[in-house]
Amino acid sequence: MAYKRIFAIVLDSVGIGEAPDAANFDDVGADTLGHVGSFYKGNLAIPNLAKLGLSNIRPDRPIEGVPAAEHALGAFGKMQEVSAGKDSMDGHWEMMGLPVRHPLSTFPNGFPEELVHKLEEFSGRKVIVNKPYSGTDVIHDYGEQQMKTGDLIVYTSGDSVLQIAAHEDIISVDELYKICEYARTLVNGPEWTIGRIIARPYVGPDKDHFTRTANRHDFSLEPTGETDMDRLKAAGLDVIGIGKINDIFSGHGITKGYHNESNMDGMDHVDEVMASDFHGFCFTNLVDFDAMYGHRRNPEGFGQALMDFDQRLQKVLANLKDDDLLMLTADHGNDPGYKGTDHTREFVPLLAYSPSMKHADQSLGIRNTFADMGATILDNFDVAGNGEGTSFLNDVTNA
Question: Residue ranges for the binding site for Mn(2+)?
Fold first, then answer.
């Protein structure tokens, strides 16, 4: 019997150890969950993730404070990324059967003068910074100048992103969005192909009190082909996106979307959708792990966010129906105990559970691509895919 509803929750940036190709990204030794566990010295209290089999994924190196389950409640494994990058867009697209196999444009020395000039000409504002920078550091260092001059803080990271920060009292959110929408038109190839333009509004009276707001918006590259979400929607199924899913896929393949203010707001939406009667796929991204703690290299906050999520997970597990399947994973790593401030190339965890599952306490092994998740979802709903990924439906079946 097929599942009527599948819920996939992406814990944004919650990696589980360096990937085999980590050296290509200068990420050897990265281990998001491992380093968070070590920071908490055995006091990382995530019992629901533990009983699903989180530490069973790597029994030789269990996460400190997260014991391997004697009999895991669900199936467990990890997935390896094949996409050329380690950004959220790459990870999510790959999960939905569209790996990004050709590297997108990155700008370790800042954006070209021609691109900067076009932004200034369109906006009537000067561009400042124009180099890789931590998002919180850049508003601390340049936010007061931006307030005085009305300039645009333009910066990037190790990923294929162009980010524009502005104080909401100086440049309205609507104006910032319009500038970002224009920037999106400039970088869709062939000369420059950038994965995401990100509007980064902030508020606060001075550099010691600036905070970024929930009005962040990602203007992603349009998917370069059909995704598994498009296929599900075309088959008449419900496809619900929670959090930045709508942004990452530019609205494609989604029948209903919810914007998140925070992880907890996102879980409120998950609870709301679980209480509704739908038939299909609910895809959720919880971004606080990444935006609030990973990039800021804050293992304490990262661990607390994991514990907060784990408490909410208890309600999700209790509310799952026999014909529901839950999958938990991540889109990349962002090790708060590692050097720098960028994403880290890591395996991502894969946990699957249904109250009716007949194959609990089973290893799903190492999946060769994130696309195995999408292939499994399509297999469940008997929808044809494009050959990307291998279904593990038989390992998580309720039949």
Answer: 12, 290, 295, 331-332, 343
